[in-house]
């Protein structure tokens, strides 16, 4: 239950998925998340607005408690096609002015990949690969040569990285109607210095962990 997960995390002053080091490292999570919830609970932030966030707990709160729409839903629970999900994540990447290499690093990192991008599509071990063994770097082949299960490993094939780079380089930001209404970014090395186009968005909130931007006509 999504709502129960959010309440449980607040009760224990930690992120729902604090078993991931990236989430566990976020400081004073209960205080900062509670402040964010107060901001997102404001009446002028309508549930029919779409939110783009890569923090699982924020996503769950918006979807389960606010009953809001997600611009980037979780991959494993969404009826959207993989292509549509990828386009939406690329839209956010472009809106945040990510270069190609930064974007690839961001989406192939486990926090985005596992929950919002490909889930477990690219599990990798000697006993199971998404692509032929030769479609992986020599370094990856050597690293996982003796692993036959690999349920917790994921590696993107070289051909998939090439495809993603080519698509992102040619990708154009859609018109304003097809952009998220709300962007919530959490503290993360890939996101800390990122801001959306200030001609399109204005910042409405920030604290130790979170920053919120609203589309300019949404005020």
Give an overview in words.
The structure is a single chain. The protein has 9 helices and 5 strands. It has 219 residues and is α/β, with parallel strands linked by helices. Strands 2-1-3-5-4 form a 5-stranded mixed β-sheet, covered by helices on one side. Strand 4 and strand 5 (210-215) form a beta hairpin. The two termini are 32 Å apart. The model has no long low-confidence stretch (mean pLDDT 85).
Strand order of the largest sheet: 2-1-3-5-4
Biggest sheet character: 5 strands, mixed
Helix content: 25-40%
Q: Briefly note the structural class of the backbone.
A: alpha/beta
Percent strand equals 5-15%
How large is the count of helical segments? Answer: 9
Low-pLDDT residue intervals, each spanning 5 or more residues: none
Number of DSSP strand runs: 5
**Mean pLDDT over the full residue set:** 85
Supply Rg.
18 Å
Order of helices and strands: HHHEHEHHHHHEEE
Coarse shape: globular
User: What is the terminal-to-terminal distance?
Assistant: 32 Å
Give me the secondary-structure topology.
Blueprint: H1 2-11, H2 21-24, H3 29-40, E1 50-53, H4 56-65, E2 69-70, H5 82-95, H6 100-108, H7 110-117, H8 138-143, H9 158-170, E3 182-186, E4 201-206, E5 210-215
Parallel strand pairs: 1-2, 1-3
Antiparallel strand pairs: 3-5, 4-5
Keyphrases for this structure?
single chain; 219 residues; 5 strands
Short description:
The chain is 39% helix and 11% strand. It contains nine helices and five strands, in the order H-H-H-E-H-E-H-H-H-H-H-E-E-E.
